[in-house]
Write a structure and sequence with these properties.
The protein is α+β, with helices and mostly antiparallel strands and 116 residues long. Helix content is 46%, strand content 28%. It is built from 2 helices and 5 strands. The longest helix is centred in the N-terminal third of the chain and has 41 residues.
Length: 116
């Protein structure tokens, strides 16, 4: 008799685990879609290439701006020279540098990203 009880308990636990897994998979896929949709609607990403130095040909330097719907986020600036490449990250709040000075190229990149 005790074997039958353990068998029924085991089957019930396996069934409950399976149902929990199915509910988790359904909820997880809905959450991913909602998060991706929210990011797609609220995130603005722009890239601007430019040439800050006279001795480097072409627009090898760039600014990557990532802003939310409030025009806050961050910019990543890569300055490419013949000898070295420097990368800077700067916080942005309401379309302006947050306690940091922005170059004219960075300001232009933010305006371009906001308009797009």
């Amino acid at each position: 008799m005790s074997f039958l009880i353990y068998l029924i308990l085991t089957i019930n636990l396996l069934w409950l685990g399976y149902l929990t897994y199915i509910v988790y998979i359904k909820n997880n896929s809905k959450n991913k879609a909602a998060v991706l949709n929210e990011l797609d609607n609220n995130l603005k990403i722009g890239i601007t290439r430019f040439n800050p130095f006279d001795d480097v040909g072409g627009d090898q330097s760039f600014i990557l701006s990532i802003l939310d719907k409030n025009n806050s986020g961050a910019i990543i600036t890569s300055l490419h020279n013949r000898d070295i490449t420097r990368i800077y990250a700067k916080p942005i709040k309401n379309g302006l540098g947050e306690n940091i000075t922005l170059s004219k190229e960075e300001k232009s990149a933010i305006v371009k990203t906001i308009k797009n």
